[in-house]
Write a structure and sequence with these properties.
Elements lengths: L2 E7 L3 H12 L3 E8 L6 H14 L7 E3 L13 H11 L17 H11 L4 E5 L4 H9 L3 H4 L3 E4 L14 H5 L1 H9 L5 E4 L1 H4 L3 E3 H10 L2 H20 L7 E3 L1 H10 L4 E6 L1 E3 L10 E3 L11 E7 L1 H12 L7
Parallel strand pairs: 1-2, 1-4, 2-3, 5-6, 6-12
Antiparallel strand pairs: 7-8, 9-12, 10-11
The chain binds beta-D-ribofuranose and calcium ion.
């Protein structure tokens, strides 16, 4: 049986690849997509998610729009951050406008109602700021116990991308992030920059995607090509001509957990410090009081990840 998941996204070039992998991989069943303010304003995240699903022939997957602003962050979006991120993402993804429409229900309603009614396990995969998830936790006292596993892209131990110490998704709504890490989910897996920066996708891989001739290959080549240009210009990785496609690594993990290497540790989120707000504080040396609450990925298997990505993008949606 395919593994069911819900993606909570701020699409975004890497969220877009995550959506395509989740919608096309035969071992996965993408139940729905929820959107949240992040890389771009939420209405663009919604529009971009619909574009991607339509483009690959999966317009049947419902998209629900979520929070337009953080639970608590009066100064977001910050112009500098937005300017940086639009280099990597653009406002609208370079594929045709959607013909599908978002659902009437809000993302948070969908999340709460879906988990309330679920008879099968559905993994929750947030790859944007955690505002929707924190809202669901606050609204439904049973939400946390109903979610079997959360696999989120966010945080960093050795890196920062939006500030010297913080990763964008966690930093964009630090109070929401703190509540998710402290919520007591049965299983919480974090895929931070430490792992995603090891799973780089190269220009050679992009050329292979272009040559596939599938909608997903064509779209991913455009999105990842754009990412590589922006990373080379503004945030060069160890290898030039290559970039992380952060959010897609979470989806790869659902298919093959050995694509990342995790340690089970206590992780909390800093919500106050002027220099460190949004930092994931990872208790690597067991110095704090907190019990382990998170499987935190320090490494990734690049070859495995890229091979799975290429294999999935080669696929087309089954006729419906
Ligand atoms: C994360 O922030 C966003 O810009 C990306 O989509 C990814 O989810 C990386 O820090
Ligand atoms: Ca994202």
């Amino acid at each position: 049986m395919a593994r069911k998941l819900i993606l909570d996204v701020d699409t975004g070039t890497d969220d877009a690849v995550a959506i395509m992998m989740a919608a096309l991989h035969p071992d996965l069943e993408l139940v729905g997509v929820t959107t949240v303010n992040g890389n771009v304003e939420v209405r663009y995240c919604t529009d971009n998610s619909l574009r991607v699903l339509d483009f690959i022939g999966r317009g049947d997957i419902p998209v629900f729009e979520g929070l337009a602003r953080p639970i608590a962050r009066p100064d977001f979006p910050i112009p500098r951050a937005i300017k940086k991120s639009t280099g990597v993402h653009g406002l609208e993804l370079p594929i045709p406008e959607p013909t599908s429409r978002k659902q009437d229900r809000s993302a948070v309603e969908f999340l709460i109602e879906t988990y309330r009614a679920a008879t099968d396990e559905i993994t929750l995969v947030p790859t944007g700021p955690l505002s929707n998830i924190a809202a669901a936790i606050a609204l439904d006292p049973k939400f946390v116990e109903r979610v079997p596993e959360v696999v989120l892209m966010g945080g960093a131990h050795h890196h920062g991308n939006v500030t010297p110490s913080a990763e964008m998704n966690i930093w964009a709504d630090p109070d929401a992030s703190a509540s998710v890490f402290a919520a007591g989910f049965r299983k919480l897996v974090a895929v931070p920059l430490d792992a995603t920066h090891e799973a780089l996708v190269s220009l050679d891989d992009v050329r292979e995607m272009e040559a596939m001739g599938t909608p997903a290959g064509t779209a991913a080549a455009r999105f990842i090509g754009r990412r590589i240009g922006a990373y080379d210009a503004n945030q060069p990785m160890k290898e030039r001509g290559a970039a992380p496609v952060h959010d897609a690594l979470c989806v790869a993990y659902l298919v093959d957990p050995s694509v990342i290497e995790t340690e089970f540790l206590h992780v909390a989120v800093e919500t106050q410090g002027p220099l460190t707000v949004g930092r994931t504080v990872v208790d690597t040396n067991r110095r704090g009081e907190g019990a382990p609450n998170c499987h935190f990925a320090f490494h990734a298997d690049r070859a495995k990840f890229v091979a799975m990505m290429l294999e999935t993008l080669r696929r087309t949606a089954p006729a419906r």
